[in-house]
Task: structure prediction
Amino acid sequence: MSFDSVHRQFPNSRLRRLRRDDFSRRLVRENRLSVDDLIYPVFVLEGSQQREAIASMPGIERLSIDLLLEEAAELVELGIPAVALFPVTPLDCKSLDGAEAWNPEGLAQRATRALKAAFPQLGVITDVALDPFTTHGQDGIIDEQGYVLNDITIEALVKQTLSHAEAGADIVAPSDMMDGRVGAMRRALEEAGHVNTRILAYSAKYASAYYGPFRDAVGSAGNLGKSNKSTYQMDPGNTDEALHEVASDLSEGADMVMIKPGMPYLDIVHRVKSTFKVPTFVYQVSGEYAMHQAAIANGWLSEAVILESLTAFKRAGADAILTYYAKTAARQLQERG
Ligand code: PBG
Result:
């Protein structure tokens, strides 16, 4: 049968019609990434004029508070709504119980005060967990066997939470995975009059090898050694359990929930968002960043993977994304117009 035959077969539908031109691709695009979706994690150092590269996270630096303020000016300029602070605790401030975590003059607390004073419009998220402060690198207080004790740890996390709120943190983000910590934190915040301090719960946080570069960045890798966090972070094989975690954190008073890592766990993002329909955040973690950066540096992948990976989070249902690419993505979005 020839092509111009009147009996020629036509496809029933031609989905390529709408893909033909940029204008129609734009009109039918279902999910969009915007700068409003981005949160930039930053590593904070002691001292002044201190800037350190992180070998496993090319392009990301640890910064002292004075340089962090310069960075924050850039973030505000780019329109990035919030930062997440991760202090790099000097070795001599680490202890078995991680008491530095609730020192009102600790690095996270000072960085929070400095940021809120200089840029009140920039949201400040602080990490609630003990791992940057413990000599053993675990997120909580351990017994003689090295097992992380839940309820004693919560008492420490509550003190840490209050010190962050007092320093002016807008959002406290427990990343420790203790049972019942959100409820305890919420109660303590209410009692202390911090009724508007938001809780972003790392609800479905998996025991993941993708956190390796982060542990280098905050300097907890050496403390943790060969131990892992499998007795409190989630098993990568589980899905239903993530929903259970989210349900508990919401009932205890979380304002937002988070899934972490990101790209390998998009199914969890989708299921959490479609089940609960609450603000659902996702963390594109250090290992995901390292993989992308390595491939881009080698010319194996083009920089276009950055916005593609972030758009995938939106498609899965994420409302906001913690990403080391926040600045790069904001710039790329600006260029795209
Ligand atoms: C600490 C914490 C971790 C991350 C955020 N908060 C590491 C861990 O649980 O070991 C990981 C972030 C990343 O990999 O980018 N509680």
Notes: Residues 127, 129, 131, 139, 175-176, 211, 214-215, 229, 285-286 surround PBG (CB under 6 Å). Residues 150-167 form the longest helix (18 residues).
